[in-house]
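Shipment paperwork, digital attachment
Item: protein structure file
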Amino acid sequence: MNTNENRQSGIHQAVIGRWIPAALLGIGMLLLGLCIQNGFRSMADNSRVITVRGLCDSTVMADKVTWPIVSKEVGNDLATIYANIQRTNNAITDFLKRNGVRQEEIAVNAPAVIDMQADRFNSQPAPFRYNVTTVVVVTSDRVKEINALISRQSELLKEGIAIVAGDYQYQTSYEFTGLNTIKPGMIAEATRNARAAARKFADDSDSRLGKIKTAQQGQFSIEDRDQYTPYMKNIRVVTTVEYYLKN
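Attachment content:
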């Protein structure tokens, strides 16, 4: 009896000894198959991408103005010309200060002298030898106040001050210097717009929008809104974002 029991026990142990490795091998093969399947699925998902662009536009007012006030004197005697220039510059400076422009916002440039007789390209004799240009420059962050004063510069004519207008070298310019302040918000909005476009594409293609693969911030551009209001600036940024698509 003991011999038979020992024989049967040995047979069971042998069967179990063969079954366990086979079972472990089967489980390992199953797990390997699942890993391979998931790997192929992941590779397939990673190969499906969409590239979209997000735009953000903003209109802001310039926060810096540079206003050159140009006058000219002509004559044959430099001493007399410089005396007239000094009176003109003083009159312009007084006008500016009376109307709220601060001393630190005013700069008087050195006169630029052209000797008409020394100009070898001038075949016609000039009625005056010297042509002298002087520029008083206002630089300020108070754009609205300076704009209001620019529209009143003709009042200088009443004081006998002739202002030269239309010279392309001396145009009033406006700048926006606060880009770093609004940049984060604009980038965030452009990215949201890009994601909305990508989500719409994914919905239309019966897909699900995945994570970002790559993202690129475009250049910021600052331009005049139009030729009539150069103190209003259009700011634009475009971001390019690449998303994964999933089934």
